[in-house]
Structure formats: C-alpha cells, structure tokens
Amino acid sequence: MLRLAAAAACHLAIPRPATATALVPAPSPLAGPELDIPDLAGNLHRLADYQGKVLVVAFWAAWCPPCRKEMPSLARLSRSLPADRFAILAVNLGDGPERIGNFLDRVDHSGLPILTDQASKLASAWHVRGLPVSYVLDPAGQVTYAVMGSLEWDSPAVRAQLLDLGAS
Asked: d(Cα 32, Cα 140) in Å, to the nearest integer?
C-alpha cells in the first residue's frame, strides 16, 4: 500500500511502495520542487510551463529493470490523454546521451518527452531514493500522488484517477 509522509526539509511527499492498481493521495497537497532541466532536444522544462495541467514527473535510469517495464505504460498514457490538460515527463537521472539512446531503442517511449538530468541534481529535491519514482501534480502545481516502484500508468483505475484530477 502506498503511504506518504511530508518531508519537512523540502515540503514534498516521500513515496512508499505502490499498489499496482491505483494511486493513493498524499495526506495534503504539497508544492513540487522546480525542474529546470532540458529534454533530449535541449529544450528547457520548468514546472511553470505546465501550470493548469495535471503533470506526471517520472524519474528513471537506463540501468533500472522496473523502469524498462514502466516506460511503455507511461508512453501509452501520454498518447491517450488530452495534451491541453495533461503532461507526462520522463526524467532520466544520471545517464549520458549514449546510454539513454540505447535504453530508448529498446522500449516504447513514443510521445513521451524525455528529460535529462545527467548530474542527478533533482534527486535530492524530489526525494528520489530508488527508481522508478513518480509524482503527480495537480493543475495548481501541488504534489497530490507519489509512487515508488513501477506502475501500469495506463490501467483503467490509474487513468480514471488522473482524469478526475484533471476535471477539477
């Protein structure tokens, strides 16, 4: 079961292992830390760019087998949600361009923006203690869900929760 606790130093939810079927809400919404990192094309991404949208920020690495399992479901979810109300960002931690490219050659990531944090500078601010770790931010930029471990993001239950969050 997913349990969340507020992290006093960063005001961010610390995820606990997730169920495979649904997201469990944070006890209270907390502001998400900044992103401020580029995608593979070099375009900079900031949280403010996604204001008004439900945003999933999914951290992963090329060496991580559960990340390989989870990436295709994130991509399918990204392709299935309306882009005017939802965004999903896959943030690589610590890998160089060649390693990221080799990973992406083996998994479905079509339609999924891939951001790169080669120095892993976001790991501390976002409380990444293992991979994969994902956070769901509501349209106001508040962390409302957190997941540690892989999840079938395009499952009917998770998709319904995200659509409900985007409708409010």
From this structure: 10
